[in-house]
Amino acid sequence: MSLSIPPTMKALVIKAPFKIAVEERPTPRIVDANDAIVRVHQSGLCGSDLHWYRGHQPSSYNFILGHEVIGEVAEVGSAVKKFKPGDLVLAAFSTSCGECFYCSQQHSARCVHSQNFGTPMLDGAQAEYFRLPQADTTLFHAPVDIPKDKLVLLTDILPTGYQVAYNAKTLLSSDVPETAANAIQQQSGVCVVIGCGPVGLCAISAACTLFETVFATDIAPHRLESASRHGAIALPLEQLKQKLMEVTEGRGADACLEVVGHSSALQTALDLVRPYGAISSCGVHTQVAPLAGSQLYGKKMMFGRCSVNKYMEPALALLRENQALFSSFVEHKIPLSQAEENKVAKTVFDFE
Amino acid sequence: MSLSIPPTMKALVIKAPFKIAVEERPTPRIVDANDAIVRVHQSGLCGSDLHWYRGHQPSSYNFILGHEVIGEVAEVGSAVKKFKPGDLVLAAFSTSCGECFYCSQQHSARCVHSQNFGTPMLDGAQAEYFRLPQADTTLFHAPVDIPKDKLVLLTDILPTGYQVAYNAKTLLSSDVPETAANAIQQQSGVCVVIGCGPVGLCAISAACTLFETVFATDIAPHRLESASRHGAIALPLEQLKQKLMEVTEGRGADACLEVVGHSSALQTALDLVRPYGAISSCGVHTQVAPLAGSQLYGKKMMFGRCSVNKYMEPALALLRENQALFSSFVEHKIPLSQAEENKVAKTVFDFE
Q: What is the rounded average pLDDT for all residues in chain A?
């Protein structure tokens, strides 16, 4: 069963660094019984898309970008059970099988059969249609009470922001497992968010539900304003240090969230966190981090990649309660035809 | 109330790097209402004592070393409730108040009122008597069914070895707090212990109670033999890597315990652990650890210092079940008078 799918479609193709083109391409079709073909309603432009665009990573080109997407199921393979044509759906930014070693531990982002779509491995969603493998375990039914351009945030950055805060909270009580489940329910402790870009703001909103006091810092003054709107006590670093020491009797932060992806930010986290405190980092660190051994002593750290499936539910709750706050996350909503002139972040391509 | 305490005592005094002397010193007396004076039965020589001896850390000298001790309470201050003269006791290697921010979270090793005895801050236990502050929360009643030279292991290295394994196990399930308490009960997962000195062997014995499979590696062949006796599959690093990949379907270890205290061992842990795996380190890292950002991504790490109070009970259980195994930990039992000729590790000074 399928909606009527045209043989070709408009797609935004990255041809080379700094070179994109809207092209007419064959519409993808079901290849595997677990596939779905999704007609795209809105498709976000992620900061990581810009890494390809700017040529920051060696790559082959001539593929379709895009992994932040809301759309409508157009066709499903014979093994897909949970979705049918016409369903409004969100997709996690990487596919997962639901059955492998990592999926069985809720670490869907490391599924051994995972495919990142919107990469040279698999065409993405900045097109009228895209093919999604492992549909049953990668798609989510989209709620209808929230605007689509906000729902797109649930496919990547909002769960990423949620997990970085959640992991810090769980790390804090990890060595007392019998009390860990209770600890996570209590809004307690002092948290510092380092980096107030879009993911940082998501992390702040999440941290406000988990910690009693949330500080935030960034080098850009306008980002501090945004951080403040999201509920943080937002200060330049030196002022933050002083205030933090005041409220913690000189101990330092119970938790630091590193949302920058640079080793200097990690070093700041080590400077601010107290002994037996937790550092949670979701930035992608490509450099060597020269961390002082004496500062590591007595600390807990967690790095990494968000398993969207695990955090979808709390991220949705966070979005539902803070819709107005997240309006600023999409500044440009444009048709694909304008893509070549508008290759900037905070953009959603609108196919409706 | 007090036992008869002589006005002077024999004590081993560190005078300068590589220079120790047995001297007649005034016997310490109660200074604070929470103090106890302990008559020493046996007092261990810890690897960290050798840091002072070898002049590895800048320090004033002319103090009494020793923090691994079993003895008999000789006198208590008026506020001490749990101990009385004549009680056989063990002391945690650092004192703790039981009430501060860290103590209330079971992190007694970071007690804000903590005093490390056997340092220039406070004379230690390589003497006939020593003074212990915060006696009620630092002393433990010693069990009588285990020889004293083994009980000495409970004051430092056995809890340290236990906690490095326990922390790895709890980190592994930290982001699923509702199942963490159950996970710790199950002997599951694959653990690699890096470094098979005395603390490494304690870590291996502990890991065998927490993990299904325990590997161990060290550059010294005779240490691999000991590791094997403690229950590990002990192999040189290259062989271990191959075997580890076989048993984990190429994933790598669920947990790595770093018990060396050198950044190269930390790097080995990063090389061996799987995504979303846990690294637990109890080595004291004094250098800068140049860790590759790409390897940190998706990992959890915990560093640090053992809070003896928290791990005393499971460490005692471990010792009780493995007494024969831990016999090798004390190779030399000598009177204090021979100390000047026998300044080597695995030594216990016998005062009885």
A: 93
